[in-house]
Amino acid sequence: MSLALAHFSFLAVWICIVRHHQLRDWGVKTWQNQLILWSGILCALGTSIVGNFQDKNQKPTHLAGAFLAFILGNLYFWLQFFLSWWMKGLPQPGPHWIKSLRLSLCSLSTILIVAMIVLHARNMRSASAICEWVVAMLLFMLFGFFAVDFSSLRGCTLHLHPHLDSSLPQAPSGSPNIQMAQVL
């Protein structure tokens, strides 16, 4: 199971990064987009921690990872939902019912997280674990629903914009091929 969670964490980070760039291209303000990105990345980190530090062996670490995975994961999808609700100009790919489905899944996830915490506090570990697994599956489903949002993507290009430090020697301008041609 830990290997599956590690793979999911890796994929979740990439989904968060692609979504971040998609929202940036759609004109979402930087601070909102950064908040969403970091809550998603911390959710993925928490999922990796949960998978690598089992409850029986490292309970405090496992619980910290569970907090990141469940609470910040739920926050990530609520932020995504509210962003699409508030910013009427954002593209809404997919059928109209997808927004209602996301609202339902986010609401159910929130209710189950509260139930999970209450049941855990009352030493009802089995019932709490059931809630935990259902929430995990809901979060996996919500990540999967980004396929609808990504369906309009035709390609993805990474552009690096280096921060030039004036105290460092500058590289010659032009492409490496042009520089090589000048040397020859």
UniProtKB/TrEMBL annotation:
It is a multi-pass membrane protein. GO terms for cellular component: autophagosome membrane; endosome membrane; plasma membrane. Keywords: Autophagy, Cell membrane, Cytoplasmic vesicle, Endosome, Glycoprotein, Membrane, Transmembrane, Transmembrane helix. The chain crosses the membrane at residues 35-53, 65-86, 101-121, 133-153. InterPro entries: CWH43_N, DRAM/TMEM150_Autophagy_Mod. It is found in: Cell membrane; Cytoplasmic vesicle, Autophagosome membrane; Endosome membrane. GO terms for biological process: autophagy. This is Modulator of macroautophagy TMEM150B isoform X1. It comes from Mus caroli. The lineage of its organism: Eukaryota, Metazoa, Chordata, Craniata, Vertebrata. The gene is Tmem150b.
